Predict the structure.
Amino acid sequence: MLGVLWTFWHLPIFFIPGHLGAEPGMIGVGRALVPFLFGVLALSVVFTWVFNHTRGSVLLAILLHASIDACIPGLGSLRVYMALYVLYIVVALLIIIVTRGHLSYERYLHQELTSPQFGRGAPDHGS
């Protein structure tokens, strides 16, 4: 769901010819938009893993997004972006395989629920 919303957030950029591999016309936009959707779906897995694995750090997710934006060219051929999307998909698949699809959420949730501030797992001081 996040990846689809993220794709539509970036939709206006595809109407700039040459940006993210887009070409003029609806067919040119569609040829760039569909691969972008798959790349963004993969990146949403990566961002979710980073967010959950860093105990919900929005700052690190923002820094990851900024570093990706800084490394990709603003203008380029669709082949350049297709290579990047394939890389994103491979990284996402590796994360899914290594975490067995959990993306660290259960561990993060378990740590939060057993911390003393939630009253579970807190030491009993004889009260």
About this structure: The two ends are 47 Å apart (CA to CA). The mean pLDDT is 76.
